Amino acid sequence: MAPDALLPVFVALPLIVAAVTALSPWRLLNDALSLLIPTINLAGGIWLYFYTAQHGTIGHIIGLYQGGAGIAFAGDQFSAIMLITTMLVALISNWFAIVSGEMNARYYTPLTLVLITGVSGALLTADLFNFFVMIEVMLLPSYGLIAMSGTRHRLQSARLFVLVNLAASTFLVMGVGYVYAVTGAVNIGALQGAAAGNGPVTVAMAIVVAAICAKAAVFPLHTWLPRTYTSTSAAVMGLFSGLHTKVAVYMLFRIWVVIFDMDARWNWLIIGVMIVSMLIGAFAGLAESTIRQVLGYQMINGMPFILIMLAFTQENARYALAAGLMYTLHHMITIGALTLNSGAIEETYGTGTLSKLSGLARRDPITATVFAAGAFSVIGFPPFSGLWGKLSLVFAAARPGDLASWVVIAAIIVASFGAMLAMFRVWREVFWGRPMDRFPENLRVRGALVAPSISLMLISLGMFIAAGPLWGATTASIDALLDVPSYTSAVLGTAPIGVPDTATLQGGH
Fold first, then answer.
1. Beta bridge partners of 59
2. Preceding omega of 220 cis (within 30 degrees of 0)
3. Lowest-pLDDT range, 3-17, 56-70, 177-191?
4. Which residues contact 34 (CB under 8 A, 6 or more apart)?
5. How crowded is the C-beta side of 133, counted as CA atoms within 13 Å?
6. 504 has pLDDT over 80
7. Among residues 254, 194, 306, which one has the least CA distance to residue 483?
8. Exposure of 265 by Cβ count < 10 A (0-12 exposed, 13-18 middle, 19+ buried)?
9. Which of 22, 80, 129, 441 is the most buried (most CB within 10 A)?
10. 214: helix, strand or coil
11. How far is residue 317's CA from residue 226's CA, in Å, rounded to a whole number?
12. Measured between alpha carbons, how far is residue 260 from residues 192, 267, 285, 319 in Å?
């Protein structure tokens, strides 16, 4: 079997096993498969990273149709590193779901595996329409995971989640349809540079980008995330934190480099939207009443830190995008750790409300240590991955040395200060203060519940220590992203059909 033929397996395997677990009555088997499948895709992502490092981007068209005429998959180091990190978060979130009892729900395992199917497909697809399809594959099980307990509050949140994502999906497929109408193609490789200077293509792609930004919870379409994610269980929120919004980040990076050709005319719009989103995410959490609601706004806060780097790709695209990717990897690991840690508290004490908890630093020192480590990482303090993530962003923004640099660096500092206030507020309310007398003295967070979040924070610590190799991996991944000719060649092959004339599209005719 040719190596490129393995790309569809990343999608087919979890989907087939999801069907098996939906029919299986054996909980132990389902639990094992819920860990095994993300582990296999994680291992596959590692293989894909090293294979493409040696051989370049690989592409595969289902059915071996000619380029431009079939369902295309493509893998490079950029898609591989995102696949590795998403599968790692999925694996540890499922581990937490098992130890917390969430996995006991009859269809929890098949729903998570279908979600993994969609994520894997979205990271490997080379077609805008198939990206929309994979997004829907992600969303359908997500509706069930949010509403799984059947409580009224969860059902209300699921309704909001469904409405927002259905609206965004409608605009996404409309945008993809308009792209096809004006270009005759939706293959990403075939659209190389199509939105740089071509008015109709730019408008059509703007609809696609706006829909993806809504799914990434970027201002002004951001309020749905903290209302819906925090209403479900911590296991599901941890799963979503590392998968949903980060798939959107992946595709926005790909679209910006390949289709928009990093068009500088959009820089100030990107900066303006991301700064507002950054500040809202940083400070809005100060008004929330539960740990996970505060963390929900930290998820919103992380997206603009990543996406604002798109506005600095003219000075040094490699450095700016590598900084954004570095922060993406840090954010997935750190927010996942904090979410699962808060879930351990909720499972033990029955609440995550700030006013109902206090003194946990003395009662549960390990849980408190994990939260403190995660808070340091979010703020950008050593010795955790957030330090290098924040510094790389600042250095990338400083390179042009113009007004945009000063504005963005100031916003990063102010937003980091807001995040620090939000984290300190949770620490003061939950972990400081006098011991709680409403719970039995011997009630403690079980080691099994806190172990998943410990493992993620140890990974964050390892990312801090191995900053050099990590930066090398991110820059290599961005080099693959920026190698558009290789990507296009892998996707379209040697004799593509139905591919628009790139010169004509770029000329705006």
1. 74
2. yes
3. 56-70
4. 21, 94, 97, 98, 103, 108, 109, 112, 113
5. 12
6. no
7. 254
8. exposed
9. 80
10. helix
11. 32
12. 8, 12, 34, 18
Instruction: Answer whether residue 267 shows pLDDT above 80.
Output: yes
Q: Say what the pLDDT of residue 505 is.
A: 61
Contact 410, 404 (CB under 8 A): no
Dist. CA 85–CA 21, nearest whole Å:
24
pLDDT score, position 159:
80
Residue type at 387 in one-letter notation: L
Q: Which residues contact 442 (CB under 8 A, 6 or more apart)?
A: none
**The residue count for the chain:** 509
Q: Residue 13 — pLDDT band, cuts 50, 70, 90? A: very high
Please name the amino acid found at residue 270.
I
Which ranges constitute the DSSP H helices of 101-151?
Answer: 108-124, 128-146
Confidence of residue 444 (pLDDT cuts 50, 70, 90): confident
Q: Which residues make beta-bridge pairs with 72?
A: 61
Residue 125 is classified by DSSP as: B
**373: phi then psi, degrees, rounded to nearest 5:** -65, -45
Q: Indicate if the alpha-carbon torsion angle 205, 489, 133, 500 is positive or negative.
A: positive
Query: Residue 307 corresponds to which tokens in the numbers above?
Result: 């996406």
Of 37, 25, 22, 28, which Cα lies nearest the Cα of 108? 22
CB 490 within 8 A of CB 74: yes
Residue by residue, DSSP assigns 369-425 as HHHHHHHHHHHT-TTSHHHHHHHHHHHHHHSS-SHHHHHHHHHHHHHHHHHHHHHHH
Question: Which residues are CB-neighbours of 313 under 8 A, at least 6 positions away?
Answer: 256, 257, 262, 320, 321
pLDDT of 393 reads 93
Bridge partners of 75, per DSSP, are: 58
**Tell me, what's the pLDDT at 442?**
81
pLDDT in tens, 299-349: 888 899 999 999 999 888 999 999 999 999 999 999 999 999 999 998 899
Among candidate residues 143, 144, 153, 152, the one with its CA nearest the CA of residue 107? 144
Residue 509's pLDDT is what?
42
Confidence of residue 391 (pLDDT cuts 50, 70, 90): very high
Looking at beta carbons, which pairs linking 24-31 to residues 24 or more positions away fall under 8 Å? 27/103, 27/104, 30/103, 30/109, 31/98, 31/103, 31/109
Q: Three-state SS for 451?
A: helix
Mean pLDDT, the chain, rounded, equals 89
Q: For residues 318 and 303, give the distance between their C-alpha atoms in angstroms, rounded to a whole number.
A: 19
Q: Residue 258: which of 308, 301, 322, 205 has the closest Cα?
A: 205
Q: Which residue bears the tokens 């965004």?
A: 168
Q: What are phi and psi of 74, to 5 degrees?
A: -145, 145
Task: Among 51-55, 104-108, 129-133, 402-406, name the one with the lowest average pLDDT.
Answer: 104-108
User: Which helix (H) or strand (E) covers residue 74, if one does?
Assistant: strand 72-75
Residue 425 and residue 354: Cα distance in Å, rounded? 9
